[in-house]
């Protein structure tokens, strides 16, 4: 089986690449290295089953060799990144998604979209089920990401209905693990890199906002299972165990044996107050639920951060 993974030089994409190469699949990565890094793939560069194309998916309109599945993961994903690259974010989810869907259609390949919990915006129902249509302020700066992902989902569903293309949509909730960048604006790597350096831990608001954190190995397993079933509507993937940001900071401080103080800062615009997936559908359709406890996963990523000395 041959799989094309866009965004394969990024955090989640590069773990997908490892996962499928370990199973002897052929992998083609298309990535323009906007927020990813070749370093995430360097251990695979000499693998005969691996090909790396450095390109912007917005400019790619064909792939010559046959393949079976296209997993579209290219997109700036951290708040720092999508606010720094607002137009690139909107373009990759609109033009880029359209191009990748057309290519999948030409090859009669299955298409999987990496969507996000951000499609729910600042949710008014809790936990979020897939049929909740969200509460997004389309005029806020964050909307470049949220609305683009919503549009991408609509494009995917339209190709599914109009052309009977086999498609799947995974709505990914906060995921953490090795290969995240220390200062990409996501809460887990930010807190760890500051705690390791004994610097103040930035907490937005009073830290009572909740998040759920899924370890990367659980997420890869969930995405893989979703790729294998014939189901086109979105599936939530994430860890339903909820923690306040303050609890997370305290746990990271303990595990890093750090004496960093907390530094409270104003809440950013449209920062969601709660986020927790309802994963009943993933349980039922994929027989999937996260296995890695928060403390266990944090120990792994802290070890990785210390070894790479970021
Ligand atoms: P990441 O920034 O580490 O990876 C994204 C990759 O896409 C990078 O390698 C980047 O260079 C590449 N890219 C961006 N624009 C591109 C373009 N126009 N052409 C080609 N490549 C391009 O982010 P990630 O955390 O690995 O996220 C991967 C996907 O999962 C994204 O689509 C993101 O929206 C989604 N997602 C991630 C999370 C999470 O917690 N990490 C949560 C929800 C959704």
Automatic annotation (TrEMBL):
One of its GO terms (molecular function) is NAD+ binding. It is an enzyme of class 4 (lyase). GO terms for cellular component: cytoplasm. Its EC number is 4.1.1.35. InterPro entries: NAD(P)-bd_dom (IPR016040), NAD(P)-bd_dom_sf (IPR036291), UXS-like (IPR044516). It is found in: Golgi apparatus, Golgi stack membrane. One of its GO terms (biological process) is D-xylose metabolic process. Residues 5-298 form the NAD(P)-binding domain. Transmembrane segments: none annotated. This is UDP-glucuronate decarboxylase.
